[in-house]
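Schema walk-through. Below, the input block comes first and the output block second. Nothing else is stored per chain. Lengths vary across the set, and this one has 538 residues.
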Amino acid sequence: MSNGYFKVEMPKNEPVKAYLPGSPERASLKKELERQSAQVVQVPMIIGGKEVWTERKTKAVMPHDHAHVIAEAASGGEKELKDAIAAALAARKAWTEMPMEHRVSIFLKAADLIAGPMRDKVNAATMLGQSKTAYQAEIDTCELIDFLRFNVYYLQQIYDRQPNNTPNVWNRIEYRPLEGFVTAISPFNFTSIGANLPTAPAIAGNVVLWKPATTAVLSNYYVMQALMAAGLPAGVINFVPSRGSDMSKYVLSDPNLAGFHFTGSTEVFSGVYSLVGENIKKNILTKGCILYSEVDFLLHQELRETPIYNSIIEAVALGNTKLNDISQKSLIEDTSKTSVYLKNLIELGIVEREFSVDAKIKEQANSSRGTYRLTENFFRFWYAFGFANFSQLEDGDVDGVYEFVVEPALHEFASFTFEDVCRAFVREMQKRNELPFRYAKMGRWTGKTTVRDEAALGGLRTAETEIDLLCIDRDAKNYMVGECKFKKAPFSYSEYLDTTAKLTPLKDKAEFYYALFSERGFDERIVADAKDNKTLLY
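--- output ---
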């Protein structure tokens, strides 16, 4: 029986070696460079822990000497990719159920191997395959080592976040990996990022298909060797060099695909993203497909009176966040009864009740206050698009529902998750002491405040509004107002002025900072004003 408690201490950044003339590390690396330059390494696929070879191969050459081949990698096609999926799914149960301390010890061991006996090997392959200097390759390798160690540490922090216990009840949160497998498509220019894309999901208990870039295939292969030497079970990460077109055709369209971890060009991502629509139609919106009845099945498993719950969830999904509004839009107009149903949905993790970041305890105790939101993204999607158009889907009009309902709203649908990502980023910034001040409270803010109105006296009026992210220090002497824009256009100057206008009455009593988050960058005037106006741009 394993009943020990293991705690991972916060790691330190791996020291970067200078490779100065006459140093032992310089001599050792030079020897390894000469060894690797004198051979053409045959790189296999690793599927289910076994080497797999194909007649089809891709050549990795030195970017600074295209005539010099450093590796030939077996390239997977339909059979190999489907075998890799099967191997990942076969390994999933045992990997998911492995105790956290056993799972993460593998990656800590791999970090030690790369930092120690395999350091020259990885550095030399990075220098040859990606045209880096010794110092540049060393920084890359150290970053990889840090990824492995810090990812383990931060995973422990996630697991440590547990709810308080109530009398006679022991509450807990179980963090589960994704259902299915994750695909990692890694870039050509960084060994560290290339290895982080498959290992980060695997550390959290997921199984992965890893497609390395051709240029970086040799250094990535050596990282895979380190993982296997450290004890990574067969099938947890499957190393499958292959053509991008084959990955799109056979892997990204697989119904068991649960996640996509990618770093690369916009062109490649656009090609991948085009598959999203086809997968939504095929696996969610088509009657009889794998996820078409998933929500209904889950509700019937957990709840009675599913028509009532359906109406409540739909009301929340369509933007009704207040208790009274939800009651009016659902099958129950009595707010006290609606509150009970919502409480059940909260306990199931489908709905959350959220308060403004500055809400007092008394306000939080009031059953009629606060806002309700769906926390489970698949539920959000189904009730926003599937449930609301159920009759058309039942009639088989899948293409019409997707073209006229889903596709125009899909990008905006993702904005909710983008806000969550931004708040998580701010939490990490605080941990690293990279914010202008240390906040005591951070979250979404709702209420009446000043909004910009050119027609009003002084250009401002009071109105009900929302702030995506508000940080407040303990003494309420420092505020940071955050605005998140997930849209296909840069953050506009007008939106910037709207953001800075909020909470104007408090500006005589406190110091104000701004944090702007944008998918598509910023108007150049925002960039010019940012420094002087204490504005952070991300």
